[in-house]
Amino acid sequence: MNKTIVVTGGTKGIGKAIIEKAALNGFDIITCARNKDYLHELKEDIEGKFESRLSFLPTDMSRKEEVEEFVRFIEGITETVDVLVNNAGVFLPGEIHKEDEGALEKMINTNLYSAYYLTRGLLPSMIRRKSGHIFNMCSTASIIPYVNGGSYCISKFALLGFSKVLREEMKDKGIRVTSILPGATFTASWEGVELPEERFMRPEDVADALWNAYDLSDRTVMEEVILRPMLGDI
Asked: By its UniProt entry, which PANTHER family does this protein fall under (predicted)?
């Protein structure tokens, strides 16, 4: 029986790379995104290449009720989630004093609350089994603020705080918690930027780093993984 991984925001960028890595390692996958067509394409692609099953539910992770519906969807498929990757996120550039009204709420809802509510929903079964690994996709913006980062930096600082607290709470419960902090990665968030692709990290490199952390023995947890482009931050 295959192990199961849940990856939010799985149709593009880092999320898709993690799903491909998981399928390569024989995992069944449960994922979500807002675009139903992209989810169907992902399912056809993964199941056509790998011996893995991919299940999905179109979900707006910024809405609590939809996150809770996604939890019920997962529970209807499996009683055992081995790995949870809180990857869904949104980036709206701007400065605190002049960014669009509602920018903070949108990014807190998507980047922080989605991870909080999904994790709370799936933790009880992990705690009963004393097994599981939770990855929270933070950012170098979780530790270094920058101009035009605005509420994105606020949300990512908060996500790292959530991840650190969760790590402390899960220490004696057999559940590993890892914060992934990637720098600039070549994803849709950087569309329109006039920089060469090679200036960015590859999504696959982030997925490989995550999997290396997962592959450690149960006696060890990699608490934080920081990755940056070879030439440094952008």
From this structure: ALCOHOL DEHYDROGENASE
